[in-house]
Records
---
Amino acid sequence: MTKTISRRSFLKITGGTTAGLSLAATLPDRFLLWAEEQGMLKATYTPTFCEICFWKCGVMAKTINGRVVKLEGNLAHAGSRGKLCGRGNGGAGLLYDPNRLKTPLINVGARGEGKYRKASWDEALNVVAEKMTKIKEKYGPESMALFTHGTPTDHFLPLIQAYGSQNVGMPSFAQCRGPRDVGLELTFGEGIGSPERVDLANSKVVVLLGSHLGENMHNSQVQDFCDGIARGAKLVVVDPRFSVAAGKAHTWLPIRPATDLALILAWINVIVSEGLYDKAYIDSYAVGFNELAAAVKEYTPDWAAVETDIPAGKIIETARLMAKNAPAVCVHPGRHATWHGDDVQRSRAIGILAALLGSWGREGGLYLATTASFPKGESKPFPTPARDALNLGPYPFAGGEGVTQVIRSATITGNPYPIKGWMVTGTNLMKAVPNQKETIEAIKKLDLLVVVDVMPFDTAMMADVILPECSYLERHDALAVGKGKSLTVSLRQPVVEPRFESKPGWWIAKELGKRLGLAEYFPWNTLEDKIKSQCAAWGVNYNELKQKGSLTVPNTSNPYITPLNQPTFKTKSGKIELASSELKEKGFDAVPRYTKHPQPPAGEFRLIYGRSAVHTFSRTTNNPELNELYSENEVWLNAKKAAELGISNGAKVRLENQDGAVSNAVRAKVTERIREDCVYLVHGFGTNSKELSRAFARGADDQGLITRFAVDPICGSTGMRVNFVRIKKEGLDA
Amino acid sequence: MPKYAMVIDQRRCVACMACVVACKKENDVPLGDFRTRVVEKTEGTFPQLRMELRSELCNHCDNPPCVYNCPTGASYKNKDNGMVLLKKYRCVGCKSCVAACPYDARYINEEKGFADKCTFCEHRVKEGKEPACVATCIGKSRIFGDLEDPKSAVSIALRENHSEVLLASAGTKPRVFYIKKYGKPE
Amino acid sequence: MELTVTGANAITSPHLHVWDWRVSLYLFLGGLSAGLAIMTSILHVRKGGKLAEGEIAAVTAPLYVPLILSIGMFFIFLDLERKLNVFWFYLTVQPLSPMSWGSWGLLVFYPICILYALAMLPDQYRPKLTLPFLINLSERLRAYRLHLAACNFGMGIFIGIYTGVLLSSFVARPLWNSAILPVLFLTSAMSAGAAFMIMIAKEKKVKLFFTKVDIWLILAEMVLLPLFFYGQYTSSGAHRESILPFFTFNHDYFWYGLGLLLLVVILPAAMVLKFLEVQEDHGEELTPVALMKMNLSALLVLLGGLIIRFSFVYAGQLSHLS
Ligand SMILES: Nc1nc2c(c(=O)[nH]1)N[C@H]1C(S)=C(S)[C@@H](COP(=O)(O)OP(=O)(O)OC[C@H]3O[C@@H](n4cnc5c(=O)[nH]c(N)nc54)[C@H](O)[C@@H]3O)O[C@H]1N2
Ligand SMILES: Nc1nc2c(c(=O)[nH]1)N[C@H]1C(S)=C(S)[C@@H](COP(=O)(O)OP(=O)(O)OC[C@H]3O[C@@H](n4cnc5c(=O)[nH]c(N)nc54)[C@H](O)[C@@H]3O)O[C@H]1N2
Ligand code: SF4
Ligand code: SF4
Ligand code: SF4
Ligand code: SF4
Ligand code: SF4
Ligand SMILES: [Mo]
């Protein structure tokens, strides 16, 4: 029996009293809660939305006497429905993390040395503005790039665009959803958005490829998933690891990693060859069926069985299960889709399967987005850059969020033109983008690295200037418009005053804008003013929004296809493209073809990774309330392999990849829950930043071992599950 | 007299730990201590595996050994609502109740020295709210309510499903009921 | 089976961690004082008081009882996390809580053993009490010696049993949850009391008398101990598992295995020694060698009692229902 228990040593066992161990930091809460219960103090609830991940759940923040004591879900919000996930519940841990960035900091050592001095906002902003102005004068504004993720984007994207650069990279594209969205756009003319429009609550069959719902804790999505299961949905989980979702599955298919496309093509083969597809649906909405049918002929279940290590019988059985329950079948298109470099085609295959089942626009499948929207406001147009943006690289279908690593390469080579300044807001590039060596090399070439962050994570600790943004509980941000079943709008507003000298992102952007001569792009006094006028323009009652946190525009929902609610497909043909004309045009396969990926040689394991339910990437690893539950990751290792290697559960090991990159020492989780050919890490751990008292050097950094990545030629996304590691036993160390 | 109870529908649990964090915040549970936990149990060998997810908390036993063993009356069973609660001002920190609980549901507040445990969020229930862990349960796995009310969610859940209690043989008569995987009557 | 628990408390996980050496010492010293109280009463009533004649222990033993008890209670006090609340023990009676009726019992035992000590004070020692009130009291109590001896004896039995019931009442901890435990603890307490008496007694006849008594008590212990393990072994799975620490000779359980091994050596050794002492034809005066042997065997008994308390307190916390 193996036991992993989150605990700290019980100090009392050594005897003595406990008075000295008082946890002074938690005292105020206790007192406040007590005083509230006694009716001496009153609690207030302020609505806002969460930023611990990108689901943006509506929050009701309970404060007593100016201190946030609890976060609860906002019932009026579609993403939370009154509930928060574990991470959202622990959001105040960020607000009160003693390791937070407190003042602007200016680097006084070599770049990356992490030596800083405190600076005033004025000084820090002036330094940044000066350097940015210099870059603009010397190299042109396009030589300044922005890396951004999350709500800071709403403030810093306009800033950088106004400054004159379109060179923007968000890890949400090339390291996350890019290939999925591109694959679906090529098939249906649009993606499934975020929050994904998966109708899991009403599905009769749910198919998860990877998508480790439960560990992947996107709030309302998991609520729907659980509702679906409770209503009796059959669950098929394809995962080399026995994930939590696999634990709930009726059929778990422990696939050989990197062979999902073979499985999907074989499913399509069965459905086409057995004539199980939705003929009426395909006839009215799709083109390219014959081309598809011809192309998938070779992908028989027997063939796929060899590739995927899944018995042909199971492949046929699951294909028929889907067909039988169509169209209420949700083959989840996934979210983090940058796996092996052919990810657009895998997503295409999923889209094609969904189309054959007729599940796009159907109850229990993938529902249609509301067509309602708010009127676009007018703002001063941004200058057109003199030189083309290079952030899409040579990839014909790269998306508007930009391809991070292309900007990085250009920074290193100076081609096609030099990139001399990086502004980084809300992303920890060292953890988010593969091959850290390149990131470091690029940073060395810069004249300016300015990071806007809440916490001193790895990337921030390499900056010339660090600008401390206040946490999401202390600021206004842009209105969040949701286009799920209905059109919704949600407000982020401060729950408490910013702590220390931290400032909201909008203020930082506006102040920088002022210093860069771009004040006219920020024609409002405070962001709240802007929000108010936006609300007025949208016909949204600001006071009501302020009070409720989230409003749903009535009568904007039309999720399913009906005779009166016909879908439109914004593809070239105006139909679902089973064979993609656009791909053919650009010289790619119109119908996905299987390409074989290398498998690890004997003695090595493919490195795969995923989520812990209580963490978001690296950003929560130092959060006291979440760190308590899971303070370091473990490397999952198949029990049989572990026995061969003589590694016992809990033993410390290091991982070394094919290029000689070695991880921190990390505990082995010896388990039956994973195949023999791969090892698994929860992403985000093993930070190098000594400023993080809880997270520093805890666990192993998967990104540090991802020195190789397979770029998808269609959209430029980086397949990151292509590295092989060996396991090295660590010397006797408790 | 309400008879409060919790039903945990294990089929709906996804081990997301929202309950664990919410409980800690709601009740300001000290660092390192917990009133509720989540157990992830996997049996079998690859690839024939079974998983059980089970959130656990104080069972508010009708036959509570923690109360019986408390020498000061600090631990008591509330006669009005059946909750097993604590009068902290009476507690001497003898830890008998901790030893007596077969479910390891208790801890000692290291700072103050008193025993502590899940209260079924009595303060919230009094205000007509659900316990914090129930309110935030992502899977709606935790159901709370009054057994005396046949229309309550707990009564319905217990009527419609097989349910079990933990360590029934201990004779503690728990008031937290578990609906296991595939426990529904055919 | 793979088990991952998120949100476990260190005080109960991976196993119970509530009580340590303080409670072990409390149980041992509480038991010793109870055993000694029993033995004192026996000493005084035996042969209509003849056995106690000329025996200094007849005076000192009753004084040791409250002293040892106080030290024992000091250790349980040390263990309380909220010492200032200790008065709550005496503002309530919790009939199902052994700790509650134990603390009331101790409250009764305390004055009884003190009154008893006063009552048993021979005339020549009485002036040493200095306080006229005490001297007076001591004199008055003379008349109730027999009653007090009976009470003292009864309370000794009660407290001896209580130290075992304190543990045996926990359904949650299968190692403790055995009806034999209170009997075993009582026997061990009496045996320790007899051993202590042997050590403080001066007279040969007294020493030999309690040696004989102790032989029977050790014998009883040697029957009870295997019976206890047998009972656990033939009970539920959790009970059976609960005795594993004593029989698993690996690193984690080293101390438990050693403890049992020591008991297996100590108890018979003490008994044999005592048997030889009784058999031996001692002269008028005990030789220094004989004295040493007697003290040694008594010490072994005390050590055995200590081992039993420590190993049971700790091992019981490893056991759990499953
Ligand atoms: N708690 C939590 N939830 C999150 C996040 C978070 O940080 N924390 N982040 C959110 C974001 S932005 C994203 S993009 C999503 C990402 O979450 P998902 O979209 O669910 O990510 P995946 O990569 O699909 O899933 C990881 C799973 O894929 C399995 N896997 C690895 N290789 C293969 C393979 O070759 N084939 C198959 N079929 N499975 C494989 C792994 O074993 C693991 O179980 O999560 C979101 N939700
Ligand atoms: N190896 C590997 N790489 C991955 C992934 C993986 O699973 N494995 N996942 C990929 C995916 S799906 C994604 S979406 C990306 C995520 O990539 P990122 O979004 O970069 O994720 P984090 O590592 O959490 O870094 C977030 C940074 O933003 C900061 N931050 C948090 N809140 C705020 C705020 O309110 N304001 C500001 N200014 N800063 C804030 C945090 O302190 C932290 O420094 O990573 C991708 N990269
Ligand atoms: S899913 Fe969780 S972390 Fe993400 S926004 Fe919602 S509550 Fe916050
Ligand atoms: S679960 Fe434990 S603490 Fe809760 S009432 Fe039952 S015995 Fe007492
Ligand atoms: S620790 Fe407190 S609540 Fe528990 S038994 Fe002792 S006095 Fe009662
Ligand atoms: S009922 Fe309240 S105290 Fe009990 S586990 Fe749930 S949140 Fe915690
Ligand atoms: S919140 Fe609900 S679903 Fe999540 S771990 Fe707790 S009981 Fe399970
Ligand atoms: Mo992502």
---
Amino acid sequence: MKRKVLSIVMAGIMILGLGACGSSSSTTSTSSAAASTAQSTSSASAASSASAADTSAAESTASSSTSIPAVDPNTNGAEEITLWHYFDSSADAKAIVEKCNEYNKLQSKVHITPTYVSRTELMNQYTIGAVSGELPDIGMVDSPDMESYISLGVFEDVTDELGSWDELSNFYAGPLSSCKDASGKLYGLPQNSNCLCLAVNMDLLNKAGITDVPKSMDDFKKAVEATTDSANSVFGYAMCAISTEEGTFQLLPWIVATHDGTKSSLSDLTNANCDPGLDMLGSFVKNGNMSSECVNWTQADAYNQFCAGKAALAEVGTWHMATMSKDVNGTFNYKICLLPTGDSGTSSSTIGGENFGICTGCKDKAACVEFLKWFMSADQEAKWAVLAGKLPVRSDAKPEYTYEQDAFATFQDEMNYALARGPHAQWPTISEQLYTAAQKVLLQGTSASDALAAAWTVISPILQESPLPQQ
Amino acid sequence: MKTQIRSRKDRECYPFILPAFIYLLVVVGYPIVYNFVLSFKNTNVKNLASGSSVFIGFQNYKELFTDPTFLLILRNTFIFTIACLAFQFTIGFLFALFFYKKFTFAGPIRGMILVSYMIPMSVTGLLGQNIFLNTGLINDLLSRIGITGPEWLTQTSTALIGVIIMNCWVGIPFNMLLLISGLSNVPQEVYESSSIDGATKVQQFFQITLPLMKDAIFAVLMLGFIYTFRAFDLMYIMTAGGPLNSTDVLATYSYTLSFTQYQFSKGSAVAVVLFLCLLIVGLFYLRLIVKGEEDT
């Protein structure tokens, strides 16, 4: 009898346990825009310290707002168009709600309702939605992922609606190509662009006896070594090398760089010019110039290390400019320069950015196209770039940044040397091979040539079947 | 006559279990069967939308079992499960024996130990991430006694240990709770009579406690195995399976293949391997229950 009771109790516990786990794993982190409006950013002081010569102009930054505005819930009988996004920093999360509210007031036909969904969850929802058909009307996606989702059938072909738009020629070719499939059909529009540059703590650099920002990989190596201060837990360099797309984003410039006058490319990872950057990063970890924790750091973590004064140099993105002045808070002077990944005077970077696509099964394709045309017009692009700390995707959009003007000019310059990831339907597999190779170099001391050769055995057949577009 | 009555009674019961049966068939049975079917196809990012995937037999399984990454992950899963089970059970049993004693504050302390079990796994993962930083709590404590701690979560040799420690922290109270309920089923008279016969505490433990708790111990180990083998959230939050797959387990790898790499069929094949491992353990557990009922 006791055994019976015990068995029943145990079985009950098992069911409860399994049930509890099931519910937790199936819970989505989707939250409505209304909920996201409850988020508030910390009150930002307007100006940075006067002592920070390079940042003194940053009197009014994109982050000087205090809270995310509420989405107007009243549709006034207009057709509701759902828009899912993963903008989660104070600047862009605020900007997307403001823009949707602005558009809703401009016309009465449709009501755009933006909903924040965490990036990971949004990607899962797209994948599931590809089968179940439960998708929003308009969806945001990271540019290198767009081709995969086009292949999965998440986005609808809008070539007929947008292909003849006379303003399409004003979009930069790189970002626009990420909205197309291999046959050139268009599935949405790019919304913003960004790339990577080097942030330099000038106080630490000067203290180490170096007066100017590094302009070549050799200069950079010397600067990192000279600024490392183990006694005060200050690393010379911080970057993100995590095993996700974020890691690939930051590692790529060190693989595709110019050495001895020749630029390497992803089309041949066995080229010896792909190795010096990765080998140098490996030596940084080995010699204590860079924390091995970079393999677990997101880009935000690496940026925080820099702002806290725990890293003298760091790889940062355009979007960080919206908050850098506030986060550094005048504790040191900083400068933004081109990523010195190769020979003197050369640089390489990675293009990032978000696209908006019209999802399959969208309830009013024409209305969604009209919204995208307005949202990505030259005027709105310029305003967005200033509001959210991004770069426009159109050549005729002229943002008038009121903060970090020098830094944005540098980022704009860096775009000339920045590489787009893909577009390629199997980019996630290529990306996985790249960050895995880099982690082998950083953690196991494997030579870059061996690690990249191993990655190439997987990447090569993929590229033979479907090559990366020429850049 | 007796058999006829029983058979009629059985038939009368069928309509009552039908709703539950249909529910299980749709919610549990269908996804499992669909997953099995998917694992024998070549569904991926290129053919999901067109529906042009085809059956490729055991190709996905062949590729998995010749892939060093999968073999490493299979090894990780077993090491993680067995290590967690061993530590959770041993320490949980010691706690159960200790807190079964009636002393002042035994109840409140037992309750406090349960706190770690009540914390959501995602929070535990974030705690673990901070505790095992190179300059985190563990290494800080070690440095105070003159030991330089390892770079826990950034070295392939130590990352899994960090995850195992955090999982044990959660699992020990669970084991303790179940084993205490098992201990309460052991009659006190047996201990009293053995004391009169001169049995020592150690003899009582090995000759009375362990044999009489056999069923409870098996149940705890089986449940622990099932619960630990399919762990996902802890490593997903704490290390994302890295560095270099050193903390990847079958559940996280299946998720990565399906939702990051869009290799849906291969992800399903990994899930099938996970399912089969658990099915074997589950059948073993069910057999024990049935055998126990027959003995009774």
---
Amino acid sequence: MHLWIEEKELKEIKDKFPSIAINKEENFTYIQVKKSQLLEILRFLKDRLNYKMFIDFFCIDFPLHNPRFQGVYILFSPEKKKRVAVKVWAEDNSLPSVISLWKGAKWAEREAWDMFGVKFEGHENLVRMFLWEGYKYHPLRKDFPLKGYEEVYLPSLNLRPGEIPAHNYSPYHTEIPTMEDLERTQKKRMEKRNQIVLNWGPLHPGTHGTIWFLFDMEGEYIKNCDIILGQLHRGVEKIAENLTYTQFIPYTDRMDYISALCSQVAYVNAVEKLLGIEPPEKAKFIRTMMCELQRINSHLLWLGTYALDLGALTIFLYAFREREKIMDIIEGIAGIRLNSSYIRIGGVAKDLPEGALDVIKHFCEDFSEKIKEYETILTKNRIWLKRNVNVGIITEEDVYSYGLTGVVARSAGVPYDIRMIQPTDAYDKVDFELPLGTVGDCYDRYLLRMEEMRQSVNIVRQCVKKLEKMKDENYIASDNPYVLPTLEEVFNSIESMVKDFNLRIYGEQVPEGEIYLSGENPRGELGFYINSKGEGRPYRLRIRSGAFYNLQIFTKLIIGRTVADAVALLGSLDPVVGETDR
Amino acid sequence: MGIKKVGLNRNVQPQTLTEKIFFLDFMKGLKTTIKHLFRKVITVDFPFELVEPAPRFRGVHGLRNVDGTEKEDFDAWVKKLKIKPPEMGETRCIACKFCQAACPVPEIFIIKAEKLDVPEDHPHHGLKVLSQFDMDLSKCMFCGLCTLACPTVCIIHTDVYDLSSYTRRGWVLNKETLSKIADDFIARRGKEKYDEKSHWPDWQKIWDDSDTARAKAWDNNPPKLGPNYADQQ
Amino acid sequence: MELVGTVVVLVIKSVIFILGMFLGAAYLTLLERKFAGHVQQRPGPLHVGPHGFLQPIADALKVLTKEDLVPDNVDKVLFYLASLMAFVPAIMILAVVPFGDPFTIFGVEIKPYITDINVGLLLALAFGSISIYGVIFAGWASNSKYPMIGGLRKAAVLIGYEVALGFALVGPIMMAGSFSLREIVEAQQNIWFIIPNILAFVVVIFCVLAETGRTPFDVQEAEAELVGGYVTEYTGMKFGLFPLAEWYIATFVLSAITVILFFGGWNPIPFLGWLPIPAFVWFFLKVFLLFMFFLWVHWTLPRYRVDQITELAWKVMLPLALANIFIVAIWIIIFG
């Protein structure tokens, strides 16, 4: 399905601003504008043509071009259901800040400053997003080496004199932040104006991972809040520029490690669209079924930890009892329970083993009663209602301004679901309902996720019914020149062997072009922007993570509420640190 | 494909007065919890009871030896890469370095093959033999790309998951350790995973259904495995 | 001469009660862990001794031999005093709790209680109120942000619930006509006091949950919000005394008082009075069942927010307790 802006509207923009350049392609349509006209054009797009939802902003580094950095904005129109991209060259390494139009750009611009060194005029508090204040380099530039600059002398504390160290020991290391660096970062983020500044995190049993919150509190009420991310930053976007497309698949499932299969499917869909590969029917249904099972898995973990944070300790273990079953299913089919790299470009890695469909059917029947069990304990409980109703209300304006997606957007009443807007795989062949909330508080998000679990079980049942009849079909489109052949083919024909060898060593030679495609993660919209220059490795791979943008609204919603509400709010926004920090 | 509205007054009714006064919401929750008190335990008592991993489980690697179940073109590969033809019980590795090329972290592997030190008229003159195969498992992601790239099904994933060691050197496995791990695994479970030609067969089961520990983890209500497909009934 | 005899008897009884309470509290931890485990479909402690029977001994040895870290900038006097202040008053309530009727063995009359003063209930209430100082001292003396928040939360919670508890206890006192716990039990030989005092019973259940710090009122050590609450800076036996005092000894003792006030103490269950079971076995049975009820509630319900707890105390519990006094007064006029 075609999601980019239409010809008619492009003509309208060109009539109003004659000095722009238009590049219309099926995978990525963008307008190239000048820096002086940027704010004007963006305001025109937002107010007149109704592209009011902010999806993403990032930079690309072209070291041989002058100016060096190119900023890219991606916007979405909820009524027309179309996207548009705006590209601008950053003259003098600076761009005007678009915070006045979309508040969600605050963190995206901080990240661009951190990774590339592009300054933004008019930004509220331009500090580094992931690294500490005082770090000298900008890592995503092309001249920064992959291993970093190993300059700091850090001898091992455990070696005794005369002992031979382990094989990969080296006394020089890349820079590590010290306590002074951390304090400087903290002070620059937020100054103390009220009674106490509470450091909630980074090592805390209540935050879902290593996120560092700073609360400026008066008694128990929070007056100001900021978040320091980057404790789990691994530089996945830089690693992607050095690997082939197939070798990057295990990295995609380590970002959002709880719903690993959904992230892999989103990435592989983007690469397949760029290469023009169509996976076979069976592979599409297998992918959809595994994605929905993984969605149930992720929502169960959310339920367990959310109830645990709010005090109901038994539900954690009941949810994990069901998760064990799903992880056993994934282990039997893919090989590993959590970080399964099961999806390949063109299909899936291996066919379903014997008995897999029976096990999945058994699980589906069993699961509907278990949801009723969780609901009996929680849904109408007066304590649960008191903790959740009217806490953290999100309005529709917030959804467009901050770029919220996933359950958070649907709880405010905005029907934004990538599975319905741009269905990939077999989502257009299965029947399901989209739950929508009304008020936008934590209770609505809780009800939404419980309802989504039921809808997912429905989808899995439909996929199983379809798959039962597809015994002999292919599970990977190995005729295509870009797809790795199966093992049987490699051992039986010499051409497949040569193709396998070439693809593994030189990578998939993707033709020049770019694409932005997203998939519906349980946490929001996970989008991949791939810019390829015709080699086996991508030139720029940008990961638009839903949890990152969803977390940004926490700083606005928590003001005026207590620490106890911070727990409920954080749980209902459901961030996973692997995805916010990448 | 419709839209379903959820919310406090949509699909969940607010509490009525009787519910509030007589604590009925608490009672229902308490009843559910007390029912669980009388059910059987679902945890597996590790390390006294072990769940056997599925056949496709990606554990520690192993290097297989020649045992008669190689593929048809094994001899062609050996000749092409100028390796000394291995006897029964010697390693299958032909030092083609496909595994290192397919791996996202190629620094894991150190693979070397040396020429044999034999006189000129020996039939094996000029042929190489594998001399070093080191794997540093501390950097490994266990993604499985190396096993799917090996042309002789030499490097495999076994079901060993216990990797604990006191030093980092304990995670660097050399050729002898890897061969022993693979021998042990193939003797125990080789038939579940591979057929006579080292392929992954169609009848490969998702897991072994006689495993009582796994039945316990499925809430004492394990699924019965049958054939996958409707036309096989 | 008689004075020396009474003193010796008192000392022996006190020692027996205290040691018995320690051992009992240790095994109550095992009971809680097994109960919580089976509710969550897992076995709880299993390997130390048969079915975990020696686990409390192992736990006690572990807590006693752990390293005792005292941070540099704490208020040393209050830091050490806090664990004692939480623990000692909870045990002292045992001084006024009677376990059964006086009985004779070998011609000697033994009274299974330490004292029987005529203001026993007031004394128990007073001791319960002292034990909250331990929590507040711990939160203050730790000189750190999370314990301070935890300690202050507990103080805010308990102020409301002590008042409500005081008013709720007026009902049974009016019906029995005295403050002495033994006489309250003897006044329940015809009808247990729970029937007219049902509102007071609900209030007392909530107050016991609040005083002993169990969910839904365990805000002072809510793990997801304040890492450990007021016990964050404590280690070793000083840490061990806090949950022992709060969760186990105080719950046990307060359930004993609730049983005495509402469920007839050591009077047998009506229609089963002909069974040859001694009085204190009935008493212990009822106390254990009530203790298990508190555990059951702890492991099911989520927890409230602090301002909702105080709102509940002053807006709901206090009016209920006052309404109960009204109802009991009418009952006494009708039934005499």
